[in-house]
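question for whoever is on the cluster today: can someone run the full assembly for these? three chains, 665 residues total. i dont have access anymore since they changed the login thing
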Amino acid sequence: MPVARPEPSDSRVIAHIDMDCFYVQVEQRKQPTLRGHPTAVVQYNSWKGGGLIAVGYEARKFGVKRSMRGDEAKKVCPDIQLVQVPVARGKADLGVYRNAGSEVVSILSRKGRCERASIDEVYLDLTEAAETMLAESPPERLDGISEEALKSHVLGLHLDGASTRDCVRAWFLMSDADHRDRLLACGAIIVAELRHEVLKETEFTCSAGIAHNKMLAKLASGMNKPAQQTVVPLSSVEKLLESLPVKKMKQLGGKLGTSLQVDLGVNTVGDLLQFSEEKLQERYGINTGTWLWNIARGICGEEVEDRLLPKSHGSGKTFPGPQALKTISSVQKWLNELCEELSERLLCDLEENKRIARTLTLHASAYKLNDSESLKKFPSKSCPLRYGIAKIQEDALKLFHAGLREYIGIYHVRSKECKHEWAITGLSVSASKIVGIPSGTHSIMKYFHNLNQTSTTTSNDICTQDAAPLSPSGLHLADPQMDTYEDEARTRHETPSLYTVADETEVCKGLKSGSESGLVSELTQSKMDFLGAGLKSEKQKKKFEKEKGNPSILRFFHSPDAFSFPEHGRVKTCQESGASSSGDLLQENKQPIAGTSISTCSLGRNDIRNDAWSYKSDEIDPTVLNELPPEIQAEVRAWLHPEKRAKSVKRGSSIVHYFSSRADL
DNA sequence: ACGGGTTCGACC
DNA sequence: TGGTCGAAC
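^ ran it for u. tokens below:
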């Protein structure tokens, strides 16, 4: 599973920052009286007092552990304060922690490349910052080294007689040391600063590891907690790994680690050194074998990705034992809840980060009643993601049915009173393949926004009800009630009908009446909306008319600084759920304005630009394109090929060439 | 009948 | 590519 990377010729400076019992800190900040008291965060669950998912350090002294029940925690620590995870729509809602994590990221990303590794973990590549510091103001020329930096734990530092602090200071100041160690020292000073800023600005403490690669940094960040940092000089690596149990290493905590112990008798990372690369490859495959061989030597080429935002969003819930869902309608009910949350988060991501997700995936777990093959896995299914709560809900339910049919097998497709021989113990929906949209097309957001609002009124939404998702994989997503009517389902799918749009804005109503055939692609509709959305005054309408032939998308491509991605900008979070600003969306009819934010809840202060766009090409009937005005066709075709665009982005301005070369299509 | 809910990466 | 599996927090 782990894979070896070509070692970037380096003496990089990598930091891993790990928030201390993060959920507890978030709750303690919210409710300061909890500070200093033994505290734990429990997940909603009245069963045995709920499950602990985070335990504060005061409570750990009493032996309280994660994965204890609330009741057990009370037993060993009667004074413990148990705080419940917020609940929304009948399920745990981690939004507050996600947002708190974003606060931290927006601070930590100031000094170098930053990768958000999880809700409470970050990797930083501080190589450049450390090199600059070493060249311009090395530790020995500093007035003083910060207290925080002097509290660093430096592995392998022999503490001879003098106080620990003095030894650490000496290590920081040692000018004859290995260049790479000096870089680490600079890194440690920078990290100490960053941690201090995090504390000042968020009230959260964190721990950190500073080393030459991600693996060692991660290992180190966990060695001295809470609120401390650990440095791993090159010279300390061999001894560190020699006696380190393999299970402590990231990626070796599971089956692979067990296999090393059981099959090879490898108990410590040092034990791995006996095995040749070939031997390891032979047993674990080329990639994993090489990866293991490197790990044994403290080598890890993995780069710090430049990414501040998550790659996907998901919402799920388990229904253990007796709570298992046994009817379609209960499944539908819960899917609706999950989809609602997902949709809300997608809309936030769109507003805050100008990104859209392209794939919807449904996962479920199930068991079979009175059946031998109850081990069978419920297959996950995915389809193109359509925005709007009702559409997501509808598609998720169809995906569920598709999975269920496969799960129970073709023999049971008989009739409707197939007694529930299945029970669902877990449901989750997720949205992935998230790409940015260009800043020149932000009125698209208005379109999505309207979609979402109107689609909550499901009954009069004829277009949506009519729509049958076309799946790229050829998966037949028949309506639930059509399970047994294959023929009818097929004829419906053969009709070349496209999605129409449930949009009740005045502009779109007008446009729709002109094309009542229903053969209006979502994209076309979105185009209409793009051109016309939100134009209220006559003045604006005139402006709209004028710009019609010269869409801002086109201008966008000629804008010199058009391409940069959200990941490089500030982190934004979706604060209060649903409290989306109906704010000024008209600006997209003007030139994109650098650094302009329409968000009411943005953080940080770097300017942010987002670009790269793409869409659900699977849903667009190619023949429709030919009927569009040429310049719009060109736009659409570009839209349909995000991968070409992505490449072009890398090559910089060649995107303009690509685009203009297609303008005549 | 359980640490739950997420997120990510690799493999095929 | 979609889907599965594993790992981590």
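summary bc i know u wont read the tokens: Chain A has 26 helices and 15 strands. Confidence is low (pLDDT under 50) at residues 453-570, 575-665 of chain A.
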